[in-house]
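Sequence, please.
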């Protein structure tokens, strides 16, 4: 399987002519009766070797993390529990981050293996974050005494500041990794780190904001969605790495939008009645319209659990106690399969309702061969 970015790279390298690449895309679109852009391709596996390398790399990272943490714990001489935890975070995190970077130099920069590259990115960013967190944890008591943080409120605010600083440095580590390897998921990881930093800062400055966490996360999700759309609009036909970056940003934005909205409605607070179920279905239809318009399915997947619960509650209250789950699965599954089967004509209708905005969205027709 060859991705759109690889086809574009082949054209740039002169291995394929632009006309040949376009003819190939037209052939695939005609054979599948849908434009390639609607398939929402992204690179995850190029072969079973990706899985093989990922398993091996995961084993190495786990072992290196354990060895690194034990070494630093031994060098620091143990002590109170926070000191031991901090030592393990520093040693394990630094070892995992360094090993992930070295492995990425071959498997990402040279071999371009998708799944191992994602693992190594997560290993580097997670290791960097653990190292930074460990530095704060191991010095926690010293910082508390030096800054005279005696009240609980002061300690909570300081904890929020630490979380924000750690998140900022982790986002910086993700940016450095992006500049070197340009793994598409890196931008989404950085966006999530920025959202985490923002939440940490708000909670540290305004402790009462803990009651607004869902609203804050919703704002972060909308901001991430806007960032995803900016990447999408720079490659409407989804032929370059920019489309892959947008895919992961949409995947990060969707739960940050869906979960806070439904939690604020109290969907999981108990069995819901018909009015609440109707509201859940209406929201899901709105998300479906947005998904069709932007040609991304992440919002539908992130919202699915709430629709299933609403439908299940309705069947359960109607008396179909034993078959509620079966009926729910049948109705929702059939609806989703129908949406998949008729995605292209439904998307054409949805985009047609948006007027001039349609020109800034992925095309509903496969580009013809010039």
């Amino acid at each position: 399987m060859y991705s759109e970015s690889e086809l574009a790279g082949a054209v740039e390298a002169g291995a394929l002519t632009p006309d040949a690449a376009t003819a190939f895309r037209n052939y695939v679109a005609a054979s599948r009766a849908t434009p390639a852009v609607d398939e929402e391709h992204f690179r995850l596996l190029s072969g079973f070797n990706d899985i093989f390398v990922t398993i091996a790399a995961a084993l190495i990272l786990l072992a290196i993390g354990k060895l690194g943490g034990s070494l630093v714990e031994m060098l620091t001489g143990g002590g109170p529990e926070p000191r031991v935890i901090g030592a393990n975070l520093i040693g394990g995190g630094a070892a995992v981050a360094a090993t992930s970077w070295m492995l990425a130099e071959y498997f990402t920069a040279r071999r371009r293996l998708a799944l191992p590259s994602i693992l190594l990115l997560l290993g580097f960013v997670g290791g960097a974050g653990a190292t930074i967190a460990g530095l704060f944890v191991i010095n926690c008591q010293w910082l508390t005494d030096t800054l005279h943080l005696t009240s609980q409120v002061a300690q909570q605010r300081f904890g929020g500041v630490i979380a924000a600083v750690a998140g900022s440095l982790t986002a910086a580590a993700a940016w450095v990794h992006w500049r070197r390897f340009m793994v598409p998921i890196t931008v989404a990881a950085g966006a999530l780190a920025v959202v985490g930093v923002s939440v940490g800062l708000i909670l540290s400055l305004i402790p009462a904001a803990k009651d607004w966490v869902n609203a804050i996360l919703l704002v972060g999700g909308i901001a991430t969605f806007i960032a995803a759309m900016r990447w999408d609009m720079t490659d409407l036909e989804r032929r370059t790495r920019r489309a892959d970056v947008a895919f992961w940003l949409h995947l990060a934005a969707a739960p940050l939008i869906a979960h806070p909205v439904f939690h604020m409605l109290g969907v999981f607070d108990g069995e819901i009645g018909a009015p609440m179920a109707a509201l859940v279905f209406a929201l899901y239809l709105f998300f479906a319209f947005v998904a069709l318009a932007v040609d991304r399915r992440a919002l539908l997947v992130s919202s699915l659990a709430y629709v299933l619960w609403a439908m299940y509650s309705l069947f359960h209250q109607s008396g179909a106690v034993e078959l509620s789950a079966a009926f729910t699965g049948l109705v929702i599954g059939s609806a989703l399969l129908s949406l998949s089967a008729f995605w292209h004509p439904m998307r054409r209708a949805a985009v047609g309702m948006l007027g001039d905005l349609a020109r800034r969205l992925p095309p509903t027709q496969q580009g013809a061969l010039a």
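The longest helix spans residues 152-181.
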